[in-house]
Please model this.
Amino acid sequence: MANNGKITLEIFRYHPETDSEPRYQSYEVPYNEDWVVLDAINWIKDHIDGTVTHRWSCRMGVCGSCGMMVNGEPKLTCAAFLKDYHPRAVKVEPLVNFPVERDLVVAMDGFMDKLDAVKPYIIRDDVNDTSEGEYRQSPAELARYKQFSMCINCMLCYAACPVVGHEEEFLGPAALALGHRYNKDSRDEGQSERMEVMLSDEAMWGCTFVGECSVVCPKHVDPAGAIQQAKAMGAQEYFKGFVMPRGAGE
Amino acid sequence: MSHMTTHQHDVIIIGGGGAGLRAAIAIAEENPSFSVACVSKVYPMRSHTVTAEGGAAAVIKPNDSLEDHIYDTISGADWLADQDAVEYFVNRAPSEMIQLEHWGCPWSRMADGTVAVRPFGGMKIERTWFAADKTGFHMLHSLFQTTLKYGNIVRYDEHFASKLLLDDEGRCRGCAAIELRTGTVRSIVGKSVIICTGGAGKAFPFTTNGAIKTGDGMAMAYQAGVALKDMEFIQYHPTGLPGTGILITEASRGEGGILVNKDGYRYLQDYDLGEALDVGDPRHPQKRAMELGPRDKLSQCFIKEKNAGRTIETKDGHAVHLDLRHLGKAKIDKRIPFVRELARNYAGIDPVHQPIPVRPVVHYVMGGIDVDSNSATNIPGLYAAGECACVSINGANRLGSNSLTELLVFGAQAGTHAARFAMDNPDYDVSGLEAQTADEGERIRRTYFSVRARSGTERIAVLRNELHDAMEDGAGIYRDADSLDAACNKIAELRDRYANVTLDDQSNCFNTELTAALELSSLLDVAESMAHSARERTESRGSHQRLDHPDRNDNDFLAHSLAFRTGVGGAPRIEYRPVTITRWPPGERTYGADSGLKRPADETGAAGEPS
Model:
């Protein structure tokens, strides 16, 4: 069942200290139909070439570390099975639309700044003491934002998005979905504050509704849907004149 | 490596998982003028807290009681937990959980809008809060996103801390950390330090733990002279996927899932865990019984079934079946959707239609850095919280859903006490710490990048695999003197060979082969403390089962083991400290019919079925 020959991985290599241009390096690894692409990369690092550089941790699709381009598509490599590519070679590259740090590792600074920008936390004037118990939230209220809270920050949607690559001001699918998640949370009163950021210039309006973000999302967050809803809310805000007392938006 | 730079803050936190982030918020809120550094080898939302599934325990419903949570925890720990610490933990748990609710955690809810709770193993009553079956994920992201509110929390993402820095008076004042992007060794210093670096499941080959769970903080504290406490107690979770070790949450049994052997028989009834009630019986799943017994016992039952030839042979070794089919698709999709996703993706099994093959898998280290219930170590200014620490509330066996709560309660506690220490001990000498950081940079250069290092012959993966085999063979669910001797000897051999390790990667930028080498070094320290502590404890208690000493021995071992490092090449020195017993004298651990249920288990506290 396990080993049935070999499979070739073509890995994008780039080292800023020694390379002026990226290159591709081929490695032959044992083919195991239970393996994911990440297992094959780890095998290369352990047994053939310790310089191959990538991020990973949980190997169960929830830490969000191991997103890469696999044969041109943004994938979590811990959820991309070799059997779906074998016997063809598998080409592995860093996520597009991000600066490459080294090999398969991209710089996340810009992404982290965008997450920060949407104020992804509960904002409210009156904060209850914990002795008063939990804020009540009905299952229906939970359902209004739950899907948008499932983002693992894997950044596949940024690699898939045609706007992220050329519009620097665009906050991008994950960050906008996250801002929208808090706007839709019944415990939150920070919508106006958040919308000031989301409605500025190209922050959200840059989105052209191609919808690729939702197609590649491994957690079915549907950032395109979130952006669509947020734009509708934003149009309302616009007519109300942006700056409003907290809680008046919903 | 390259030149060194110093960064000064008030409190330094090493680790950005649940405990570290909770500590950071505690300090930032209580001391707005403080600068808090959060140093993590990954971006915080990659931390392993993210994978926790089933839930977090805290008494919230009127049908529950603090007393019951305390008793469940102490008896689950096989009386090795410190009872004053458990009382503190249980008392603080509800307010910490409500605090996280206030910070936006999307807890699953009842129809009336209160939080929902579910039953978990070893607990008398349902008290586990949950966010479907991605509780750790939601907790971590809620905490991380909340930290973004505070301008005084400064993150050092992808910085690998490799050494603690102590001042002339022996107070901990910071760490040396490698910035992965550049290879620069930074001196990150302050007035006190908290370690929140998680567990060390990666000392074993078959584990639910992610790649980053390599015991770095435990090893750093051990190297600095802090004891590692109760390291022989390693939790096997009874239900991991064969092959990958991916966790199938205990919540699947809390929701009513059953475990059967190759004959379709609910074998747990043969091991004093109670009666196999029909899955249609309204009393099923019965608390503190059968599938909701504690993890140590369930994992041990698996081995007994395997030895009796009643397990199922799969291509990835022996397994039993976790059967969820009677729950139905609607309940599975609502309450444990991640279980379905994982089983389908990684085992090719749809639990709506097929039972899931599962086997015990290394999950959690009960032991850790020796701290008191103020989260303080014996080094002034050094604190620890979360899985890396041992308070101890988990004793010889942690109950499922206590660890996520522990991150909050003791993360906050560590933050408060580290901040106090910083206020009381404000002055320190930066240059002395810088010199230590420079020495650490030089040590790393010499060990991994010198001419000698380049001519080394040992590959990291080879040493790591041999360590894995030694731990699995020698220090698994059942151990004895011979198996532990072999493990101790093998670890000593691997330590010698580690001196001859060599890296393909001789560069500065994002050198993950260097971090793998440092992680292996941490694992060798931690594994050494585990194997030696297990060899010295000649009794069986909780998760530590000695075939050559099958009984619990309270006369000699109602005590925490403390493993102290003795210097290069030497075996650790093992000492003991009595367990703190207050109101609950050691008794027999009973589950099933005799588990001492005090009140009707199915009496619910709030509005009907969780939605």
